[in-house]
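Narrative summary of target 7.
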Amino acid sequence: MRVVVLTGGTGGVKLLMGLRFLVPETEIAVIVNTADNMYWNGLYVCPDVDTVVYALSGQLDLDKMWGVRNDTFNFIHQAQILGLEKTWFKIGDRDLAMHILRTYLMSRGYSLSSVVKYVCARLNIRARVIPMTDNHVETHVLTEMGDLHIQEFLVLHEAKLEPLGVKYVGIEQAEACPEAIHVLEKADLVIIGPSSPPVSILPIIYTRPIGEVLENIDAPRVAVSPLVGDRPVLGITDKFLKAIGCEPTVVGVAKLYRKYVTHMIIDKSDNYAVDKLRELGLVPITADIVMRDMEDAKRLAETILSIVHYCK
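Modeled conformation, tokenized:
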């Protein structure tokens, strides 16, 4: 079974980690959001890509769900003393090596996707990790303080500002990595992880021609709701949905995804939405979608995989 996962944030990565126990890694491809990438004091940082890489290599800090487990922060402390800019974005000492390597190789002319492939080979990762594009795209959040990069909004301002709008700078010029299109066209199953749609998933779908390909492939395409009881499990997904004019409910998310998916998994607490999802042309499936630990992640992955067997 060839499985493709679209992900960016914490929920999608947790699901990916559970999926690894059930599907051989060589049959898994991950198309990762890169619209949260940023230039950090001359270094090119790819937070979502690195989170996926660290998760698949067993290095991820599972408490924070970002960065390297047991990392130290001596570099960032010294950088603060010396007055380096953007030290609100905490880069660990071991994590720093990734950003230096990536920036160096890209300065030598290598694409982002080729650098990711090289790093995965070095870390013995057998799944395919594919950036959505080799072009630079940035998610910006409109606030009363102005237009903020998503990292400024989430980290510097701790997501305390009200998001008034979301835009993807550079998305019109971006083209999907050819490997992303290849794995989608060959997929037996596509999973859209339970990450925030406006921040983590829509940038992938809006990268041409990923959305068009999703609309036209025959494989089951399953979206996992990022909401439980119409509330986000983590973060402010509901506020981001409002900011893009989407109803902050599982029905609103279903309307957002309806062109791109065939099935939607929602939490049992949102059972009220089953008939509404059917009216939208989706196959609704209710389950306990909260991933408290790895057993929960495996169980949710099993539920998704069962869809493929049912479709056969």
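The chain has a mean pLDDT of 96.
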